[in-house]
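Hi support team,

I'm opening this ticket because the web form for multi-chain structure prediction keeps timing out on my end. I have pasted the exact lines I submitted so you can reproduce it. The total is 223 residues across two entries, so I didn't expect it to be a heavy job. Is there a limit I'm missing, or should I split the entries? Thanks in advance, R.K.
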Amino acid sequence: DTAVSQTPKYLVTQMGNDKSIKCEQNLGHDTMYWYKQDSKKFLKIMFSYNNKELIINETVPNRFSPKSPDKAHLNLHINSLELGDSAVYFCASSLGLETNEQYFGPGTRLTVT
Amino acid sequence: SQQGEEDPQALSIQEGENATMNCSYKTSINNLQWYRQNSGRGLVHLILIRSNEREKHSGRLRVTLDTSKKSSSLLITASRAADTASYFCATDVSNYKLTFGKGTLLTVNP
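Hello R.K., no limit was hit. The queue was backed up. Here is the completed structure from your submission:
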C-alpha cells in the first residue's frame, strides 16, 4: 500500500487555468507538507499543516491555496497558472510537528504552456 | 539563502568504490537528515543525526556531523549501480521545517 499518494502524476495545462493536486497519506501522521522542486532540483517548502491547522506558509503567491479536509489529506489548488509554476510538486508527511523523518509522495509534474 | 549546501554537485564512481558527499550549513540545528531521490521519484529518508551525535551508521551508510564546522558527510560504502540517485541533506532549525540543499548527483557505473 502506498504511504503517501498524489494525483495526478502529470499535469499539463495552459496559462491562466486553475488546477488542483491531491495528496493522501495512510500513515496516521499528523503533519503534512507541500514542496516545490524546480528544474535545478532545488526543493523548497511551501506549506505545512498539523492536524488540519496551517503551520507554515512560506512566501508563496496567493494563487496557491492549500486545503486540509482532514488529517490524512492535503490538497493544493492553484489559480491563474503561470509559466513559472512549472515544476514538480511533492507532498510529504511526518509523525508530528517535530521535524523527524518525512515521507514523500511520488510527485506531480506540472507543466504550464 | 539556503541553509544547506552539498558538495560535490556531481560524483561519478565505479561499482564497489566508496562515495562521500558533504553538506555545509549556516545556522545551529536540531538535527540533520539525508535523503535520496531516484530519477523521477519522491525523496526517501535515509538517516537522521541529532546535534548531540557525531556519527551514525545504517547498513552501508555512515553519517558524521561536526557542529563546530557546521558540516556533515554521508559515506556510502561498496557502492552499487542501484545507489545512483541524487542525495540531499536537510537541516532542522527549530521552526518546524526542513531546509534542503541542492543535492549531489551520484552516478555509480557498473
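A quick check on our side: Chain A touches chain B through 24 residues (CB under 8 Å). Let us know if the file doesn't open in your viewer.
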